[in-house]
C-alpha cells in the first residue's frame, strides 16, 4: 500500500508555511484524538498517528526538505517517532526519571552487566533534560506558547560535533580497548567485587582523537543556552509533561541527542478548586437571596457569568454552570463544568434590618398558631 501524501493528510498546500502546518495539525489532532473518539477509537488512533507523523516531518525544516525532494523514502522513521506520550498524568512522572537514567549513569552500568550490545551507542547519547515551568490556572485554561531558555550541550561549531580538529583522526582507545567501559576488580579478604565505569580516556565512546578540537577539547559539545518555543496545550494539568524529542543535550562526538522534558506546574488558584476539567467554586449569598432567589454574577475562569439562584435555595446546594470549567485536553471545544456550592451568610441583624426580621418572625408565629388552631378544630370535628 502506498503511503498518503503528508500535505494531503494535513489538508494544506505545498507552499504552506510553518504556522499553517502547526495550525492544521492542532485542529486535526484535537478532532481525531483517540480520547475524543471513544466510539471508534481504533480508527481515530490510526488517523491520529497519520496526522502526527505528517506533522513531525512537515514541521521540521530539514525533514520537510528531504520529503519534498525524495518523498516518503527520504524521511526514515525510526521507532522514536512522535507518540502520544507527550502528555502523561502526574503519576507517571517517574517514567521521566527512568528515561533520564537511560541517558547517562545507571543505564550504562546495567547494560554492561546484561551484555547490552547497544552499549557504545548509549554511552555517548546526550542527556535528557528536565525543565520545570510554572503557569497560572488562566494560562492552563487558554494554552500558551512560551519561549524558554535551556542550558544544554550543543554540537561544537568548530568541529561539527566530531571532537577532532581538522586533519585529526579517530583511534581505538587503548585504555578500554575500544569498549568504552573499564572494569575494576576490588578485593577485600576473600570477597571480590567488580565495578564497571565509563572509560575516562575516551568518555565511553571507545575512540580517541589524535588531534582534538581546541575549542571543545575533543568532546564535540559545548555549553550553550538555547531558546526553545514550547507550545502548551489548553487544559494542561499540574504535573503533566511535554516531551520534546532531541532537544536535550547533544551526545559527545556526534552521539545522538537526548530529549527535553518540560514539566508543567499549574499554580493553585485562590478562587477555584480544580479537578481535571471540572472547577469548584464557593459562593456566599445572603439569606434574603436564598429565600427570594436572584441572578448573581459569579466569577469563572473565563470571566464573570450570571448564575440564577432559584428561590428557596438551601445551604450547600450545588449549582452547575455548564461548560464553564477547564478545556478537555486534545478535545475540540469541550469544556468541563463549574460547580458552585452555595453558602448562606448568616449574621446578626441590627437597626431596620432587625425590625424587618422581627416582623417576619411575628408572621411565622401567626402562621404556626393558625396551623395549630386549625388542627385543634379538626380534632374537635368542626
Ligand atoms: Zn570542537
Ligand atoms: Zn576508552
TrEMBL record:
Record-linked PROSITE patterns: DNAJ_1, DNAJ_2, ZF_CR
Cofactor requirements of the protein: Zn(2+)
Residues at which Zn(2+) 1 binds: 156, 159, 213, 216
Residue spans, zinc finger CR-type: 143-225
Domain CR-type positions: 143-225
Annotated Gene Ontology cellular component terms: cytoplasm
Keyword Chaperone carried by entry: yes
CXXCXGXG motif-type repeats, residues: 156-163, 173-180, 199-206, 213-220
Domain J: 5-71
Pfam family, one: DnaJ_CXXCXGXG
Keyword Repeat: yes
Cofactor binding notes: Binds 2 Zn(2+) ions per monomer.
Binding site for Zn(2+) 2: 173, 176, 199, 202
Location relative to the cell: Cytoplasm
Superkingdom per UniProt: Archaea
SMART domains named among the record's database cross-references: DnaJ (SM00271)
Single GO MF descriptor: unfolded protein binding
Annotated keywords: Chaperone, Cytoplasm, DNA replication, Metal-binding, Repeat, Stress response, Zinc, Zinc-finger
GO terms (BP aspect): DNA replication; protein refolding; response to heat
Family: Belongs to the DnaJ family.
Function as written in the Swiss-Prot or TrEMBL entry: Participates actively in the response to hyperosmotic and heat shock by preventing the aggregation of stress-denatured proteins and by disaggregating proteins, also in an autonomous, DnaK-independent fashion. Unfolded proteins bind initially to DnaJ; upon interaction with the DnaJ-bound protein, DnaK hydrolyzes its bound ATP, resulting in the formation of a stable complex. GrpE releases ADP from DnaK; ATP binding to DnaK triggers the release of the substrate protein, thus completing the reaction cycle.
Assembly behavior: Homodimer.
Free-text note regarding domains: The J domain is necessary and sufficient to stimulate DnaK ATPase activity. Zinc center 1 plays an important role in the autonomous, DnaK-independent chaperone activity of DnaJ. Zinc center 2 is essential for interaction with DnaK and for DnaJ activity.
Protein's name in the database: Chaperone protein DnaJ
Name of the gene encoding the protein in the UniProt record: dnaJ
Amino acid at each position: 500500500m502506498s503511503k498518503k501524501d503528508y500535505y494531503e493528510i494535513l489538508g494544506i498546500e505545498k507552499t504552506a508555511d510553518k504556522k499553517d502546518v502547526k495550525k492544521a495539525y492542532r485542529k486535526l489532532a484535537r478532532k481525531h484524538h483517540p480520547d475524543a473518539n471513544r466510539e471508534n477509537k481504533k480508527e481515530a488512533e490510526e488517523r491520529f498517528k497519520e496526522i502526527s507523523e505528517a506533522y513531525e516531518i512537515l514541521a521540521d525544516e530539514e525533514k520537510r526538505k528531504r520529503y519534498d525532494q525524495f518523498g516518503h523514502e527520504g524521511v526514515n522513521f525510526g521507532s522514536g517517532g512522535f507518540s502520544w506520550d507527550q502528555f502523561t498524568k502526574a503519576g507517571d512522572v517517574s517514567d521521566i526519571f527512568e528515561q533520564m537514567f537511560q541517558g547517562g549513569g545507571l543505564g550504562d552500568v546495567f547494560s554492561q552487566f546484561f551484555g547490552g550490545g547497544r552499549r557504545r551507542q548509549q554511552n555517548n547519547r546526550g542527556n535528557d533534560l528536565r525543565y520545570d515551568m510554572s503557569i497560572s490556572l488562566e494560562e492552563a485554561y487558554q494554552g500558551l506558547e512560551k519561549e524558554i531558555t535551556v542550558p544544554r550541550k550543543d554540537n561544537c561549531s568548530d568541529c561539527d560535533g566530531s571532537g577532532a580538529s581538522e586533519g585529526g583522526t579517530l583511534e581505538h582507545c587503548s585504555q578500554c580497548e575500544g569498549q568504552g567501559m573499564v572494569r575494576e576488580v576490588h578485593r577485600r579478604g576473600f570477597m571480590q567485587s567488580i565495578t564497571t565505569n565509563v572509560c575516562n580516556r575516551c568518555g565511553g565512546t571507545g575512540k580517541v582523537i589524535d588531534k582534538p578540537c581546541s575549542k571543545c577539547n575533543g568532546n564535540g559539545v559545548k555549553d550553550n543556552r538555547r531558546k526553545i518555543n514550547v507550545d502548551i496545550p489548553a487544559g494542561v494539568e499540574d504535573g503533566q509533561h511535554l516531551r520534546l524529542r532531541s532537544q536535550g543535550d547533544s551526545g559527545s562526538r556526534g552521539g545522538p541527542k537526548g530529549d527535553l522534558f518540560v514539566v508543567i506546574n499549574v499554580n493553585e488558584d485562590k478562587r477555584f478548586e480544580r479537578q481535571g476539567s471540572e472547577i469548584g467554586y464557593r459562593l456566599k449569598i445572603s439569606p434574603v437571596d436564598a429565600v427570594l432567589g436572584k441572578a448573581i454574577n459569579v466569577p469563572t475562569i473565563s470571566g464573570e457569568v450570571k448564575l440564577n439562584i432559584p428561590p428557596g435555595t438551601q445551604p450547600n446546594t450545588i449549582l452547575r454552570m455548564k461548560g464553564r470549567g477547564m478545556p478537555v485536553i486534545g478535545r475540540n471545544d469541550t469544556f468541563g463544568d463549574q460547580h458552585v456550592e452555595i453558602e448562606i451568610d448568616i449574621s446578626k441583624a441590627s437597626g431596620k434590618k432587625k425590625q424587618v426580621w422581627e416582623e417576619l418572625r411575628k408572621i411565622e408565629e401567626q402562621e404556626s398558631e393558625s396551623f395549630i388552631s386549625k388542627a385543634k378544630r379538626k380534632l374537635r370535628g368542626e
